[in-house]
Amino acid sequence: MKILISGHTGQVARELQLALREHELISLGRQAFDLSRPDSLRETMLRERPALVINAAAYTAVDQAEQERELVFTINAEAPGAMADACFELDIPLIHYSTDYVFDGSKATAYREADTPRPLGVYGASKVAGEQALRISGCDHLILRTSWVYSQHGRNFLLTMQRLLQEREELSVVDDQIGAPTWAGSIASATAELIDKWQQGRHHWGTYHLTCQGETSWFGFASAIAERLRAAGKPCARLRPIPSSEYPTPAQRPLNSRLDGERLEQDWQVRLPDWRTALDACLQRMS
Ligand SMILES: NC(=O)C1=CN([C@@H]2O[C@H](COP(=O)(O)OP(=O)(O)OC[C@H]3O[C@@H](n4cnc5c(N)ncnc54)[C@H](OP(=O)(O)O)[C@@H]3O)[C@@H](O)[C@H]2O)C=CC1
Ligand SMILES: Cc1cn([C@H]2C[C@H](O)[C@@H](COP(=O)(O)OP(=O)(O)O[C@H]3O[C@@H](C)C(=O)[C@@H](O)[C@H]3O)O2)c(=O)[nH]c1=O
Ligand SMILES: [Mg+2]
């Protein structure tokens, strides 16, 4: 099947290129498929005539987003809307990724798909607007909300921690934001599974939560990374748990980032591995 993927060098896009390699992939970076120019996307899609589109491109710099609201909304909301309109016209489905940061984190339990988004920052607000644009387009779509994505490439918490833990004596990490670290490789495998099942005739469109199983804090995630560094005989800083109030950032993050994945299991029988298992799989790939 011919699949158009946006976001060429991104964490999820790179893993999709591996997980979907038996398909005919058209993986486009910002040169050929620039989401900051939403009007340009339709032409490329109509020319390529894919059977499915996966939007793995996004503006993901959460703090910087606070200063570039207009550009962030163009890339994360207007562009997915334009892609969805073109998918509707071509009568093909669109798979799109969204985030735990659509929620404000005030819920006591894990978020379900039907919970009302209330983003705390510009990035989250732009992702909410992107979701809405897909829903009103009328195209068949999957909005897959994931969280705390890392991989061996790009900018992410795993690589940041690996560097800082080896450079410093002590490192303070917030312990009151709870969520599920999710390997981009797990997201890509699950996406490939959904595509297989769709090709076999299953059609459960809509919004789904797709994260690794289990939960931890950023401090817990950092501790797991530190444990594995030490096991590999690498130098490693002492870790200190701190409250978010001691780590001020331009954008506020939700305290509860937990996403309930039951709907995905019910409708699609897709379940991601535990976050620790996925972390080991990613590290294995890196070694
Ligand atoms: N990262 C995370 O922790 C999480 C991500 N998500 C969502 O998952 C999806 C994939 O994220 P992830 O792979 O981690 O993101 P990355 O930041 O790793 O990759 C995003 C990609 O989008 C590209 N991009 C940015 N601006 C444009 C543009 N104007 N035109 C074309 N491409 C552009 C980037 O290109 P370049 O490298 O050139 O900038 C990059 O390749 C996104 O929808 C994101 O919102 C959800 C939850 C958590
Ligand atoms: C580097 C560092 C971060 N932190 C904190 C800051 C923050 O609360 C938390 C995570 O920091 P980051 O900047 O890596 O994470 P952040 O950019 O907020 O990650 C988010 O990205 C977007 C795209 C998403 O969609 C989310 O799911 C989430 O993954 O860790 C520390 O406490 N100590 C540190 O040394
Ligand atoms: Mg970040």
UniProtKB/TrEMBL annotation:
The keyword Ligase does not apply. Catalyzes the reduction of dTDP-6-deoxy-L-lyxo-4-hexulose to yield dTDP-L-rhamnose. SUPFAM superfamilies: NAD(P)-binding Rossmann-fold domains. Binds 1 Mg(2+) ion per monomer. PANTHER family: DTDP-4-DEHYDRORHAMNOSE REDUCTASE (PTHR10491), METHIONINE ADENOSYLTRANSFERASE 2 SUBUNIT BETA (PTHR10491:SF4). GO terms for biological process: dTDP-rhamnose biosynthetic process; O antigen biosynthetic process. Its cofactor is Mg(2+). It holds the Pfam family RmlD_sub_bind. CDD domains: dTDP_HR_like_SDR_e. The keyword RNA-binding does not apply. Pathway: Carbohydrate biosynthesis; dTDP-L-rhamnose biosynthesis. GO terms for cellular component: cytosol. Keywords: NADP, Oxidoreductase. Residues 1-286 form the RmlD-like substrate binding domain. This is dTDP-4-dehydrorhamnose reductase. Its EC number is 1.1.1.133. It is an enzyme of class 1 (oxidoreductase). It catalyses: dTDP-beta-L-rhamnose + NADP(+) = dTDP-4-dehydro-beta-L-rhamnose + NADPH + H(+). Belongs to the dTDP-4-dehydrorhamnose reductase family. NCBIfam families: rmlD. One of its GO terms (molecular function) is dTDP-4-dehydrorhamnose reductase activity.
